[in-house]
Known about the structure:
The protein has helices at 127-131, 192-210, 240-243, 259-272, 274-280, 289-307, 315-326, 331-345, 348-357, 361-368, 372-388, 400-422, 450-460, 464-481, and strands at residues 2-7, 15-21, 30-35, 51-57, 60-71, 83-88, 90-93, 103-109, 149-152, 157-169, 174-190, 217-223, 228-231, 437-438, 441-442. By secondary structure, it is of the alpha+beta class. The chain folds into 3 domains: 2-93, no CATH class; 103-257, no CATH class; 279-308 and 346-481, no CATH class. Strands 1-2-3-6-5-4 form a 6-stranded antiparallel β-barrel. A two-stranded antiparallel sheet has the order 14-15. Helix 2 (192-210) packs across helix 4 (259-272), helix 9 crosses helix 11 (372-388) and helix 12 (400-422) crosses helix 13. The termini are far apart.
Amino acid sequence: MIGLWWRADRPDERLPGYLEQRSGRRASPWRLTLHGQFDDAPSTPGLVQYQTLFGETPSGPFTLTGASLSSGPSGLHSVAVKETIWSAWQLLQGGHVDDQQPYGEAVFEIPGLLHWLGPTGLNVHMQAEVHAGEGRWDRPADGEEPRRLESKLDDDLRLTLGPSSSHKFGRDSDLKTYGATYAVTSAAGVRLEVLTRVSAALADLHAIVTGAPMQAYNMRLVTTGEQVLTVVDASRPVGRRWSRSGLRDPFLDTAEIDFESFIPRWLGLCQDLPVAVAAAVPRNDRQFVQSKFIDTCNGLEALAAHKWDDAPLSDQEEGLLKTLKDVGVNRDLRDAVKLTLRMRRFPLQKKLERLAEVLGEQSAQWLLGHPVSAWAELSASLRNSLAHGFAMKGGLGDDDLFVILAQQAAHQLLSLALLQEAGYNNERSPKPGELLWQSGRSNAGHPNSVLFDNLEFVAFHADRWRGWKAAASDSSSSAGTA
């Protein structure tokens, strides 16, 4: 796409150039090649200083945000080179706006969003309502005002969710397609940075409940001055394959949560516990299972610290710290000793056991075996072995199935514990509080979901944890005898 381009703060200096999309996960999606260079450009190759660039093209006005100079005549290249190349992360079509521009509304989609409007036809807890035609609101009749769920994110920021439809007219037919959209509104206006953060957090939520990576797309922005812009998607949205799969059944739908309170709590978790959320979100990457397990355990520890305060130190431990102070030990060393004492009182194994309790007693035993402490002890040992470089007893660290199951179990627990912390408690089930299993059968509302299928894989091997613990104990006893 050719046109004239300039920096937002220097409208008089315009250069011809062409914009193209880039492929690759690590690359910024937009590449702008300019014939010439800006005078006194504040960004040089190797030193990232993001700029906003404006463009005027035959397709209309565009705004590039998060743009940085990647190569040009100065710095790494000869002055004989006449082109400068900029990389950018976001492209807006329809106008010229800077990064401080307030928006009154943003509407966007997430792949398969329609299948989250509950109760869905695959929600086993609400089959009677579904068959009676009650509660279904994902496909409003012609002329009917669509219902929308609403959640107040702060005093001025609101999120709504509801169905949408579109018509495609042909010579011999009229095709109506259905979907769903999120809308973020603000009377005072919010910056694009905030809107992007909200949409990314919601995409992470949908990635967890669908068991597939997800990405917001097709975002339409309306400024407080009623100017309409579109965020141009550089590629097809991540998650599109799930939205076109067979059952398209998420682990939970909106009929199983209090949408108004659940969404703000989820956004709060994304802000306060980015490590935990990032470890729980499914991703198409090639990370080693061992390093992924360490990341997952870090996420579980972060969530445990968020949920529960550390146990207070005993009188004896407080006395030790006082003695260290009296004899002149410096503050940094005393703080290090205090941290060690706290960690000993609430180690990873205990954190894992307490997090497993949020699933419900029967659900935890179905997923992780009985007693759950066997799984927790071995998982904590594996994390410490990988993090500190020592071998596990019984050679378990070299057992591929053991390592894979440890990662799968930790990942599923983290996903469920985050959903529970946001407000999901399986209230529609015969026994609320049991998220997965009750009286020898599934208690989940969506047993056909990808997430529950992954849970069943872990549960199928639940009895192995006792055997592995016995093998580790036997190995330790043999070593002691020798």
